[in-house]
Structures are given as C-alpha cells and as structure tokens.
C-alpha cells in the first residue's frame, strides 16, 4: 500500500504548482507540473508492472 501513498503524495505536492500555473499564469510552475506528471507516469508504470508480476506469480 506504500506505492499508493507515493502516488497520493506526488499528486498533493503538485497542487500548489497547478494553482500557480492555472490561476496566476506562472510559467515556471507549468514546467514543474509537467515534470511532476512525468514522474507520476513513471511511477504508475512501475506499479502496473509490479501488479502484473504479482498476478502472474500467483497462477
């Protein structure tokens, strides 16, 4: 379940940058948002692989 916590923490850490970019037009915050979303994508792929491996191992 710690992987879920990692995803949650990452999303929550991006909240202020989302606000800065969308509400205030801060371009640097947009760069940080894109970087964070890339990290989220990588983390999600790692979790998908783990889940698939565990599922296959239980067969």
TrEMBL record:
A Pfam family name for this chain? Answer: Hc1
Q: What is this protein called?
A: Histone H1
| Source species | Aquirufa avitistagni
- Explain the purpose of this protein: Might have a role analogous to that of eukaryotic histone proteins.
Family, according to the entry, reads as follows: Belongs to the histone H1/H5 family. HCT subfamily.
Concerning InterPro entries, the annotation shows: Hc1
């Amino acid at each position: 379940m710690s992987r879920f916590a990692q995803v949650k923490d990452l999303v929550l850490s991006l909240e202020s940058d989302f606000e800065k970019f969308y509400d205030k037009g801060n371009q640097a915050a947009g760069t940080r948002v894109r970087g964070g979303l890339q990290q989220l994508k990588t983390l999600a792929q790692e979790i998908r692989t783990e889940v698939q491996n565990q599922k296959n191992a239980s067969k």
